[in-house]
Amino acid sequence: MTSAQRILVLNSGSSSVKYQLLDMRDSSRLAVGLVERIGEQTSRLVHSPLTDGGEKREHTGPIADHEAALKAVAEELARDGLGLDSPELAAIGHRVVHGGLKFSAPTVITDEVMAEIERLVPVAPLHNPANITGIRTAQALRPDLPQVAVFDTAFHTTMPESAARYAIDVETADAHRIRRYGFHGTSHAFVSRETAKLLGKDPSEVNVIVLHLGNGASATAVRGGACVDTSMGLTPLEGLVMGTRSGDIDPAVTFHLERVAGMSSDEIDVLLNKKSGLVGLCGDNDMREIRRRIDEGDQRALLAFEIYIHRLKKYIGAYYAVLGRVDAVVFTAGVGENAAPVRAAAVEGLEELGLVVDADLNAVRSDAARLISPGYARVAVAVVPTDEELEIARQTYALVNA
């Protein structure tokens, strides 16, 4: 147990580092920032101290690697009296995308933990290497400080085998770790608990369908606080239509493209992950722009929106069936929190399931968790802003104070 009260949250991407420093006494943010385009001449650091009198600072110029990026972050924090050498810093919490089956909870990082995260690189080649780099750099800067891994996949490890297994040869699946892992776990965990709070109930008492709708999008069925099914799978490609990802697709499409179009596996990978979804359907992955185009009569944008909503409704219905009883359907993340037309369209026609949206409540823009269903609705429809950094900080702080 530690008397220190601050947690630094690091989210290390392949060419970026996002960070937040939080005071866990009241969950307040002391500083937030971003380093992007690491390794380029046009690297950019944006730092915003949130203490009294602090002013946003921005620097551009080459930042060679993640070590240089984190050193620059440490310098910015030190300028505000919030340096990494502060005795108030209890731990550093790292977002790690893939934890496989072994990690179902936040974990203090040891050599053995690092080795397992490295073994998972083949199933998360775009994410885990960057996460590893961030961890090693932070360890070098503060070797005496607890470093904690919080895994995107951890919340989904409660799925039953009937939901997590794919119907392929078991030996092949096990040999190559092929199963549904799910992602956005910190968001689904945070939002499902906050939804229970909004309903005035304990998480163990409610069944919730959480719709995390951003450029990446996923749906999760949560029964009594535990995930029982989720839409993303071995990778974040499966499931809902997303900004640039196709979501669910006949696997034979890949074979067809190899045989008929002569595309390589790498080209198909790029097609399905970066040139599909909304951007593939209509050339835009910004829901605000798509809605503007629809208002102007653009049929291609309208079709993209209708496909997006159709897939979303399918998952709402499927997870309603999985749960049997649903207390709330909740929207979160960039699109879910801000796109009222998406929320309205997603539940339109589902009145027989107890789902209905109040048009006036749905039109309200707010940063607060709120119900957008009328009082008589059998199932609550809610908007709950996600806060993955706060969730990582809470899990990290709880672990080092256990």
Structure description:
It is a single chain. With 402 residues, this protein is an alpha/beta fold. It is 38% helix and 19% strand. The chain has 15 helices and 14 strands. An 8-stranded mixed beta sheet has the order 5-4-3-2-1-6-8-7, sandwiched between helices. It has a 6-stranded mixed beta sheet with strand order 11-10-9-12-14-13, with helices on both faces. It is globular, with a radius of gyration of 22 Å. The N and C termini lie close together (6 Å). This is Acetate kinase. Pfam families: Acetate_kinase. Homodimer.
Q: What would the keywords be for this entry?
A:
402 residues, alpha/beta, eight-stranded mixed β-sheet
Topology at a glance:
Layout: E1 6-12, E2 17-23, E3 28-36, E4 44-49, E5 57-60, H1 66-79, E6 89-96, E7 107-108, H2 111-119, H3 128-141, E8 147-151, H4 161-164, H5 170-175, H6 185-198, E9 207-213, E10 217-223, E11 226-230, H7 252-260, H8 265-274, H9 277-282, H10 287-295, H11 299-323, E12 328-332, H12 333-338, H13 340-347, H14 359-363, E13 370-371, E14 380-383, H15 388-400
Helix pairs in contact: 1-3, 6-15, 10-11, 11-13
